[in-house]
């Protein structure tokens, strides 16, 4: 874990994120253009399930930012990973029969085919990057290039010892993780934000006023995104009510004391994020209400300096991509608010369900109108 974070950290520095902003903008711009064409002049509005739309957006963003010039191969990997996740969920929801994963069923066979194709695609991209890195060619600032550049540097600084760097298998696994962490969690944040702002139009109006005051109708700049005040309050409140992951399960690597309890090594601890984010003693009587105002003075003030808000985890294992996710969410929400107003469709059914992340069980049907 320490080795991986040491190698990956440089790829997620603020200066590196600035270089990825054009990729964020391109993907968001394509989404806005697509939605714009769906709204006819006669109707003035359209009904759309934004859940798959936002999943495609965040998958598009991670494909561009992770693989850069290999964007098309990255998009194919995203499609395969999405299919693999759906098959894995089916397997989890099925009746468990010991040893059934080894049987040559249609689902098991397809999962093996997907895993093989993803590994072939990633191996080919990685080998090309290895050659480019060795001869000093530019990485173009994408996540894979930055990770491999940092990995190559780590090995070189340790007299060529590959044990202190990441193996091909480890790099492939990190690339696969980019998709889950970078696509799934951000898409759930965005979909619940649109649902919440549809349920609470007064906050949608405030958010849009802030966006138009700072950016008008032009593309957001990186430094300008830090000037936003209301948008982060809204995003934090959505993360409190609908954290992407409902539970963290860290494990003790040595005997440790937790309050008055002594835990031996190897014990799995359940940290129920959803329950803590909805604890009345911490958040007050309006704990179940959408109230971004609670974050006006920041997270520390909202939590009374307690560790009670951790949608991205906490401590040394806190999500390395949290800044990436927040910049992407701010960019996407800003551009949506610049171009559209939105409200819930009468067909929408509010049914959050846990499928690895908290998702809208029946989709998120939204009525879009041009600004």
UniProtKB/TrEMBL annotation:
PROSITE patterns: CYTOCHROME_P450. Its main location: membrane. The keyword Heme applies. InterPro entries: Cyt_P450, Cyt_P450_CS, Cyt_P450_E_grp-I, Cyt_P450_sf, Cytochrome_P450_Monooxygen. It is found in: Membrane. Its cofactor is heme. GO terms for cellular component: membrane. Keywords: Heme, Iron, Membrane, Metal-binding, Monooxygenase, Oxidoreductase, Transmembrane, Transmembrane helix. Pfam families: p450. Heme binds at residue 319. It comes from the Eukaryota. GO terms for molecular function: heme binding; iron ion binding; monooxygenase activity; oxidoreductase activity, acting on paired donors, with incorporation or reduction of molecular oxygen. GO terms for biological process: secondary metabolite biosynthetic process. Belongs to the cytochrome P450 family. This is Cytochrome P450.
């Amino acid at each position: 874990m320490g080795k991986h974070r040491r190698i990956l950290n440089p790829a997620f520095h603020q200066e590196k994120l600035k270089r990825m902003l054009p990729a964020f903008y391109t993907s968001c711009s394509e989404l806005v253009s697509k939605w714009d064409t769906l709204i006819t002049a006669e109707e003035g509005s359209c009904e759309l399930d934004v859940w798959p739309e936002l999943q495609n957006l965040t998958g598009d963003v991670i494909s561009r930012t992770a693989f850069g010039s290999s964007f098309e191969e990255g998009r194919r990997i995203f499609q395969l990973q999405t299919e693999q996740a759906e098959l894995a969920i089916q397997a989890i929801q099925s009746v468990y029969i010991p040893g059934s994963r080894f049987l040559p069923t249609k689902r098991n066979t397809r999962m093996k085919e997907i895993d093989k194709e993803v590994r072939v695609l990633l191996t080919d991209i990685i080998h090309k990057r290895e050659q480019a890195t060795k001869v000093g060619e530019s990485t173009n600032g994408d996540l894979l290039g930055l990770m491999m550049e940092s990995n190559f540097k780590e090995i070189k600084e340790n007299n060529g010892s590959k044990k202190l760097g990441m193996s091909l298998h480890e790099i492939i696994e990190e690339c696969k993780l980019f998709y889950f962490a970078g696509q799934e969690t951000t898409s759930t944040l965005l979909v619940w934000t649109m649902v919440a702002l549809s349920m609470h139009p007064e906050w949608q109006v405030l958010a849009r006023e802030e966006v138009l005051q700072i950016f008008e109708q032009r593309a957001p700049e990186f430094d300008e995104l830090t000037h936003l005040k209301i948008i982060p309050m809204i995003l934090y409140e959505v993360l409190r009510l609908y954290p992407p992951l409902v539970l963290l399960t860290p494990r003790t690597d040595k005997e440790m004391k937790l309050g008055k309890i002594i835990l031996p090594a190897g014990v799995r601890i359940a940290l129920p994020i959803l329950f803590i984010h909805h604890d009345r003693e911490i958040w007050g009587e309006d704990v179940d209400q959408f109230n971004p105002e609670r974050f006006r003075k920041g997270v520390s003030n909202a939590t009374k300096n307690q560790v009670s808000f951790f949608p991205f985890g906490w401590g040394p294992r806190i999500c390395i991509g949290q800044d990436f996710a927040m910049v992407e969410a701010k960019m996407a929400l800003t551009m949506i608010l610049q171009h559209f107003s939105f409200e819930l469709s009468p067909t929408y059914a509010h049914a959050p369900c846990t499928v690895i992340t908290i998702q809208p069980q029946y989709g998120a049907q939204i009525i879009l109108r041009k600004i």
